[in-house]
Inverse folding.
């Protein structure tokens, strides 16, 4: 017997290696599709989920958020346990709970942090090959941080967006970019209220060019002002990118 309609919030972690991104599409398996099929089987009703961040193909996440409506009687906080039994090992629900019926994820303001991992050494680390980009060229983190400072604030990031992306505006606000190094591992952490298609990966690829000494740090400001993708660096590989923090207004 069905219960009353409720809205359920999920926190989702996943290894994006085998998936064509978050959003359901006809040409490959996605995180959204896999979640919907598992939920539909578990709850015995057609389920559609809405995600807070539509990560690209091959990108990972520790903390994405999804919501869906259901009339199933299973308590919301128990869904994560049952759902994880039906999901592949590279997707896990770390929390499930009931949200207000009028909670609209699409209308909430969000703050996201992505981290891009780079292994900078003479040889790759095979244990990190799926979660980092390898480069043997020496990288100067101080130069990378100087360049990163040019990108903080509200700007038109058209130069850092894949050509042809369907968006209403290419203006975004980046609240912080930090480049740190610990041993052989470099981390580029980028925080903001939203990102364009491949934006963080293009930022990473451009900062690497600065780190290699192929581009002066001041050049990044000129690239930003040019609003021309051809002037920025290459798009860094997806495997190095992970959504590590996601804050949503109205949620703890």
């Amino acid at each position: 017997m069905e219960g009353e309609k409720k809205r359920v919030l999920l926190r989702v972690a996943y290894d994006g290696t085998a998936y064509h991104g978050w959003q359901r599409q006809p040409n490959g398996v996605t995180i959204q599709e896999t979640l919907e099929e598992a939920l539909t089987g578990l709850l015995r009703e057609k389920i559609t989920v809405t995600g807070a961040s539509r990560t690209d193909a091959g990108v990972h996440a520790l903390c994405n958020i999804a919501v869906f409506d259901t009339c199933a009687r299973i308590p919301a906080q128990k869904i994560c346990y049952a759902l994880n039994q039906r999901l592949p090992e590279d997707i896990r629900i770390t929390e499930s709970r009931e949200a207000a019926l009028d909670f609209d994820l699409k209308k909430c303001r969000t703050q996201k942090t992505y981290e891009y991992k780079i292994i900078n050494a003479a040889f790759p680390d095979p244990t990190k090959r799926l979660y980092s980009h390898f480069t043997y060229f020496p990288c100067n983190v101080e130069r990378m941080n100087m360049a990163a400072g040019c990108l903080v604030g509200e700007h038109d990031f058209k130069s850092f967006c894949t050509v042809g992306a369907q968006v209403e505006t290419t203006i975004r606000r980046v609240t912080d970019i930090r480049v740190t190094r610990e041993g052989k591992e470099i981390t580029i952490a980028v925080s903001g209220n939203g990102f364009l298609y491949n934006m963080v990966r293009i930022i990473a690829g451009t900062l690497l060019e600065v780190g290699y000494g192929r581009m002066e740090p001041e050049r990044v400001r000129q690239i930003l002002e040019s609003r021309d993708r051809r002037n920025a660096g290459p798009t860094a590989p997806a495997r190095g990118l992970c959504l590590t923090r996601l804050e949503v207004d109205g949620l703890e």
